[in-house]
Design goal:
13 helices, 20 strands, alpha/beta, binds zinc ion, 9-stranded parallel sheet, single chain, binds dihydropyrimidine-2,4(1H,3H)-dione
Length: 474
């Protein structure tokens, strides 16, 4: 019997910290050797001229959640994990959404049933809390943390889902007592309602008005408040999908004061602007998400924030609402109205190529930072490290072989998301994953999907390291 099931040879192996020319030996789905020259394998992949990266971790994806603004997702754990894999991602962390009046445990079971038999890559779960009552925080949440559900998301906006400050404080206290990470969607709900009502009163309801109901101040105030709530309890918080410089400056301010505050941003805030939403008629709906994309100056600031270490995580916030039809962004028609379009854009497949091309390719970030923000830091923050998110002896052999010179024009047709549009239509990227390996198995080979549905497995997360050694090297 050969010593290794798989050897990846002659590649440039990159982690969040290093860049090394070495071979990788894989046995039983795990990395068991890193050395100058490894032979004697059942399969050898020549990665000469290619980058060999840890598979991406997309730690903010909405998969098969209940309808939002009355509109259902069109993707499921099958289509969305195939799309993720085709884009170089080997782990996702979607959400279980709490349902009022139902036990959290039974909701968790429901999401397991959605994933089992369908997912082609491994997955963990965050849990969205919309009713953090004392029974839930005192009994269910501690038991779930024990079982590997160690991150909880709370909304400061959205009807029926927003928590008030008291509820957020109680959630943070539970997170502190039992060892969980709290992710916060920071937008001031009262301001949004106030501004939206003002615009509706004047009939300014076309989509170009959408960003005006959630200007930067709305996000900045809520970000500061979220940081303050975390400070008062003495527990880390992670601000998700930060869209703009003003919110980012709050995070930087907190970090400089020594608070454990983490930040996430997403491709839509690096590549889209309010001008996309202002495209005429329904077209703008393709770019509508919450918070709204801003402008090119904010994009520049966010890139600086990534390079400077303000942001630890870059995930997609993938939402699979179609454009047309009853599961589409236009479903609440007949005319476009900024309050009736479900916010959210897809990006599970294009995330890594976009960020590699515009980030590493254009010199905005180095390759180690790319690995850190798209894989390693999420693994550390959410309790998956070192099993996931790095290339090291003992880690799962989740590896993406990346051709840094491959040019691709992104289009709906070439993506595997079960959708009729992508907000990144026509974007030209340089750099694409050519082989994607999950636990030692090649699941995507030159665009061909080889993975069996159901091969992906659940990952119970460890309690997060509440002061993880995250940081962006550049
Ligand atoms: N933002 C979105 O754009 N979609 C889903 C939820 C969210 O917070
Ligand atoms: Zn989200």
């Amino acid at each position: 019997m050969a010593q290794f099931e798989l050897v990846i040879r002659h590649g440039t192996v990159v982690t969040a910290a290093d860049r090394t020319e070495c071979d990788i030996g894989v046995r039983n789905g795990r990395i068991v050797a890193l050395a100058d020259h490894l032979g004697d394998a059942e399969r050898i992949i020549d990665a000469g001229g290619k980058l060999v990266l840890p598979g991406g971790i997309d730690s903010h994806v909405h998969v098969d959640e209940p309808p939002f603004h009355g509109v259902a997702s069109s993707g499921d754990f099958g289509t969305d994990t195939i799309a993720a894999a085709c884009g170089g991602t080997t782990t996702i962390v979607p959400f279980v959404q709490q349902e009022r009046g139902r036990s959290l445990r039974s909701s968790v079971r429901e999401y397991h049933a959605k994933a089992e038999g369908r997912a082609v890559i491994d997955y963990a779960f965050h849990i969205i809390l919309i009713d953090p009552n004392s029974r839930l925080l005192g009994q269910e949440v501690p038991a779930l943390i024990e079982d590997g559900y160690t991150s909880y998301k709370v909304y400061m906006t959205y009807d029926g889902m927003a928590l008030n400050d008291t509820e957020i404080l109680s959630t943070l206290e539970a997170a502190k007592a039992h060892g969980a990470m709290v992710m916060i969607h920071a937008e001031n709900d009262h301001c949004i309602h106030h501004l939206a009502a003002r615009m509706e009163a004047t009939g300014a309801t076309s989509l170009e008005n959408y960003p005006l109901m959630a200007p930067q101040a709305v996000e900045r105030e809520a970000t500061h408040r979220a940081i303050t709530l975390g400070e008062i309890v003495g527990v880390p918080v992670l601000l998700v999908h930060v869209s703009a410089a003003q919110a980012m400056e709050q995070i930087r301010w907190a970090q400089e004061r020594g608070l454990m505050v983490y930040g996430e941003t997403c491709p839509q805030y690096l590549f889209l602007t309010g001008d996309h939403i202002a495209r005429s008629g329904w077209e703008g709906a393709k770019y509508l998400c919450a918070p709204p994309p801003r402008d090119t100056e904010n994009q520049k600031q966010l890139w600086r924030g990534i390079a400077g270490g303000v942001f630890q995580v870059l995930s997609s916030d993938h939402c699979s609402f179609k454009f047309e039809g009853t599961t589409g962004k236009k479903a609440n028609g007949p005319t476009p109205h900024f309050r009736h379009v479900p916010p959210g854009v897809p990006g599970i497949e294009a995330r890594l190529p976009l960020v590699f091309s515009e980030g590493v390719g254009k010199g905005r970030i180095d390759i180690n930072t790319f690995v850190a923000i798209t894989a390693t830091n999420a693994a550390r923050i959410y309790g998956l490290y070192p099993r996931k998110g790095t290339i090291a002896v003992g880690s799962d052999a989740d590896i993406t072989i990346w051709d840094p010179e491959k040019r691709v024009t992104i289009s709906t047709d070439m993506l595997h998301e079960n959708l009729d549009y992508t907000p990144y239509e026509g974007f030209e990227v340089e750099g694409w994953p050519v082989k994607v390996i999950s636990r030692g198995e090649v699941i995507v080979d030159e665009g061909e999907v080889l993975a069996e549905h159901g091969r992906g497995g659940f990952l119970a997360c460890d309690r997060p390291d509440l002061n993880p050694a995250v940081g962006n090297p550049s």
